[in-house]
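Inverse folding, one chain.
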């Protein structure tokens, strides 16, 4: 099943036999430490996390005159813009702008209009950057690879996570909770398609392809990265650029997140038919089967038997996946929350896809 905002298979860029040879031959475009980096941070109601994320950014071992943090707030109601404004008063390279459209895609475009960087990297307001050398490593990745874009792992294992957040992080990094072709949970440095992983771009990529599509409320990153791949631009994936994201704190929030992903995935397919992959089919079929199977099971005994057998098979699959994760991580306490997290992921993604198929969101 496809529960990610995108997925793609890894292939080296044209003319490159392997990742190592690409690293040896690609010419540097900008010296490390001299590359000006714009950190784009789209936020809405991130008061709980954003000060920590901002502090980890401004404390980077990178010349403060060579990077900026552009925060774009989508009309937060929890005091986020006030927190950022006070932070910006103490740090000249931090700025905040308003995003009246509230969409993440619109926020990125607002930031792009004000960005001064040679490179633009997207970092959300609920992330952990425990590596003070993050920006330097990002610049190095561009220099070593000569790539147009850089992709990164985005694990959900944050410090201080609740038991439910730990379960969500474990589920989302497993094949049953995330598309196995996606690279966001990988660890090997390599050239890869931009589709599922690119988060940092040379400025000329936007000059060539245009901004993010503001018709997308989710998967705007995957849609843009799909254009990157179609244009034949290169993407270099490296764990040196890892950023840890905070998982949703409740099952309801997780469901809403996956519902948006599901809608975005269908919207992407409508705009780019060549983005279709078999992985988008099981989630809506699963939800449709749940909805239609119950009333149909009362119509005939054999239909009831098929429905119950399907439910049993799904339950056993989820139980096996949850038990495997709990054993592998030596944490029996994860078992019960995982039994709730997996169905939330599957039903959320499938519901989003069905809703977008039946009645596209405006």
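Residues assigned per position:
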């Amino acid at each position: 099943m496809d529960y990610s905002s995108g997925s793609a298979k890894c292939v080296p860029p044209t003319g490159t036999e392997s990742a190592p040879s690409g690293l040896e031959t690609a010419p540097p475009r900008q010296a490390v430490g001299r590359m000006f980096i714009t950190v784009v941070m789209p936020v809405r109601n991130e008061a709980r996390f954003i000060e920590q994320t901002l502090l980890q950014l401004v404390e980077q071992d990178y010349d403060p005159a060579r990077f900026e943090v552009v925060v774009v707030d989508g009309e937060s109601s929890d005091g986020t813009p006030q927190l950022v404004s006070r932070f910006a008063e103490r740090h000249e390279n931090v700025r905040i702008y308003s995003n009246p459209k509230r969409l993440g895609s619109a926020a990125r475009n607002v930031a792009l209009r004000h960005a001064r960087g040679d490179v633009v990297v997207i970092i959300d307001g609920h992330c952990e950057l425990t590596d003070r050398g993050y920006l330097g490593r990002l610049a190095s990745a561009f220099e070593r690879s000569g790539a147009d874009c850089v992709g990164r792992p985005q694990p959900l294992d944050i410090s201080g996570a609740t038991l439910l957040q730990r379960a969500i992080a474990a589920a989302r990094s497993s094949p049953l909770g995330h598309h196995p072709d996606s690279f966001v949970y990988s660890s090997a440095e390599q050239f890869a398609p931009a589709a599922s992983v690119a988060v940092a771009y040379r400025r000329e990529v936007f000059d060539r392809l245009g901004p993010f599509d503001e018709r997308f409320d989710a998967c705007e990153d995957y849609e843009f990265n799909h254009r990157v791949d179609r244009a034949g631009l290169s993407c270099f994936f490296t764990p040196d650029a890892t950023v840890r994201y905070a998982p949703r704190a409740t099952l309801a929030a997780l469901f809403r997140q996956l519902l948006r992903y599901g809608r975005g995935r269908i919207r992407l397919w409508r705009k780019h038919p060549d983005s279709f992959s078999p992985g988008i089919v099981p989630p809506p079929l699963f939800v449709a089967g749940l909805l239609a199977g119950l009333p149909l099971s009362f119509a005939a005994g054999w239909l009831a038997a098929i429905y119950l057998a399907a439910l049993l098979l799904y339950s056993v699959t989820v139980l096996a996946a949850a038990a495997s994760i709990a054993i592998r991580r030596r944490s029996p306490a994860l078992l019960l929350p995982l039994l709730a997290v997996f169905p939330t992921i599957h039903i959320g993604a499938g519901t989003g896809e069905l809703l977008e198929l039946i009645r596209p969101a405006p």
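The first strand starts at residue 37 and ends at 43. The radius of gyration is 21 Å.
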